Amino acid sequence: MNFTDTAWKIFNQSIDDYHVADNVETPAKNPYSGNSLEQLLYAKNWIDTVQWHLEDIIRDENINPTEALQLKRTIDSSNQKRTDLVEFIDGWFLDRYKNITPAPNAKINTETPAWAVDRLSILALKVYHMNLEATRKSATDEHRKTCTAKLNVLLEQKKDLSEAIENLLFDIENGAIKMKVYKQMKMYNDESLNPILYQKTEK
Questions:
Q1: Do 46 and 21 form a contact (C-beta atoms < 8 A)?
Q2: Tell me: the pLDDT tens digits for 57-92?
Q3: Would you say 57 and 68 are in contact if contact means Cβ atoms under 8 Å apart?
Q4: Residue 159 burial by CB count (10 A; 0-12/13-18/19+): exposed, middle or buried?
Q5: What is the C-alpha to C-alpha distance for residues 168 and 33, in angstroms, rounded to an integer?
Q6: Cα angle at 63 between 61 and 68, to 5 degrees?
Q7: CA distance 163 to 29
Q8: Is the pTM for the entire model greater than 0.70?
């Protein structure tokens, strides 16, 4: 089983586990131990899955404004955790390929392996939920037909993205692409970088 097949299996395991209770406050029970790649992938998708449903909840037109603000803070925190974990996964890849000497003409890819994996994790959620809509008995035939067409596009995207990730890893392993990681350096959560936050402390 190649890397993307393993990742896809773990992502769907996480999604299925979440939907047992289908509650954003359900604590994760990661079945993988240590800082193994499997453990990281499961944790990554669990964050994505919880955030997917937080985004659904906050779009309720009748939501209490105070609750909506609290949810926005939770989503911001989740985004930071997601970014931190992606960078941690990139650290795993950096360690794996630390003994690879890139070719003199090696190129730099537009995204790192972990950010490509981030896209695959979100895609797994799209496929899961679009499949629910494509088979929802309470929906109209037209709705199911439209969602089935969208699901087929998502599955094709999954095939293409998986192939692209496998090619990226192959090229890194063979020195054709050099892996270089830049931290995201998100500013809105940092009290020393967000002017709305630090101006309050300066007054």
A1: no
A2: 999 999 999 999 999 999 999 999 999 999 999 999
A3: no
A4: exposed
A5: 27
A6: 115
A7: 30
A8: yes
